[in-house]
Amino acid sequence: MVSRVERGPVADWFWTIDRLFLFTFILLMGIGLMLSFAASPAVAERLGLDSFHFVKRHAAFMLPALTVMIGLSFLSPRQVRRTAMVMLATALIMMVLVLFVGVEVKGGRRWLSLLGLSIQPSEFMKPAFVVICAWLFAEHARQPEIPGNLFAILLFGMTAALLIAQPDLGQTILIGSVWSAMFFMAGMPWLWIVVLGVLGATGFFGAYVTLPHVAGRVDRFLTGEGDTFQVDTAHDAIVHGGWFGLGPGEGIVKRIIPDSHTDFIFSVAAEEFGIVFCMVLVAIFGFLVLRGLSHAYRERNDFNRLAVAGLVLLLGIQSMINIGVNLQLLPAKGMTLPLISYGGSSMTAICVTAGFILALTRRRPEKRAQERSLFRSVAGVPAE
Q: Does residue 315 belong to any structural domain of this protein?
């Protein structure tokens, strides 16, 4: 335990960081490892691998991902911006390379193979994209003559175009939703709300008309006809588990879910640990979002406010999409459950997101002064 009277980088970090945030992120990583034991052996055996192949890899990803999260949490807001700028530029270049030399999986080019590892650049693009857009919106609010909003729109258009080219409509919808929420919080004019709403609806209709795989997923969701084996099996697993589950290792339906260790790990959790456990899991994600928005509400600095809100919404909306697909509330879409699903790129990128959140929500002298000023103004106490 670090004493309050100690002085140094680690002691200052420990007493200024939001420890509830930190504990919650680590808790989710632990739950992810536990569920990997439940969900991945059947998949590994079908592929002719060692039963605990994915469990071992999941555990191996955790240490560097946790190191990244802790390391980034030491950064100042300015250093967060600079780190995000470098990360975004690198990720966008890699997303261009993916279109030419990427590994094709299930009709999509989303991964680069480097040194024997499969890296999904779009995962690392997301937290960096949110931070840079927050900075652009904040700069425009601070100095209206700076075309920050226009640059943010252009950045979103370029990023969305690269995602659609892969194609990855799910990630496009995810960053579009977060970007729109940030633009709204930054004071988006009503005209822009109407224009962007029309453009979004037009884009979705265009994707339905021009992209067969999008039309197929939407049609299967609406009609229930066609290849719905995976989502139907996931639904059966949830129903089979009941309120309290069958117990660890006792799941039966999970054994035939093709992507039980990634996109449909929530269904495995429901079968073995029950609906009550899944409700607790949803509550944990809800806590992260609400606590982050609470931090953002109290924040006077526009960049910190928009960045924290955007990053927690990124986690919340991604988890909502994953859980919605498992519950057959949304069309099937390959998207991981943050810090729970198997995947090195996903886990590391989510830990980057968590590290940025921890860094931006740390209590600093100027931040504490702002909070005291806000409290006095709300309470009607005269300034000192």
A: yes
- Distance between CA atoms of 202 and 136, rounded to whole angstroms? 26
Name the pTM for this structure: 0.90
DSSP for residue 128 = H
Report which residue type is found at 364: R
d(CA 121, CA 162) in angstroms, rounded, equals 11
Rounded to an integer, what distance in angstroms lies between the CA atom of residue 355 and that of residue 72?
Answer: 5
Q: Is residue 33 part of a domain?
A: yes
> pLDDT for 52-97, tens place per residue?
889 999 999 999 999 999 999 999 999 999 999 999 999 999 999 9
Closest CA to 214 of 334, 345, 97: 334
The pLDDT tens digits for 161-196 are: 999 888 888 899 999 999 999 999 988 877 877 888
Taking alpha carbons only, the member of 57, 69, 56, 59 closest to residue 26 is 69
pLDDT class for 300, splitting at 50, 70, 90? confident
The answer as to whether 375 is a domain residue is no
The dihedral built from the CA positions of residue 321, 324, 330 and 333, taken in this order, carries a sign that is positive
pLDDT of 218:
81
* Cβ–Cβ under 8 Å, residues 303 and 206: no
DSSP string, 231-273: HHHHHHHHHHHTTT-S-TT--SGGGG-TTTTTTTHHHHHHHHH
Q: Answer whether residue 2 is part of any domain.
A: no
Residue 103 contacts residue 113 (beta carbons within 8 Å): yes
- Structurally, the chain folds into a number of domains equal to 1
Cα atoms found within 13 Å of the Cα of residue 292, Cβ hemisphere only: 30
What average pLDDT score do residues 347-351 get?
Answer: 95
Instruction: Determine the average pLDDT of the residues in 260-265.
Output: 89
Contact residues for 285 (Cβ-Cβ < 8 A; gap 6+): 315, 316, 319, 320, 338
Which residues constitute the domain of residue 271?
13-364
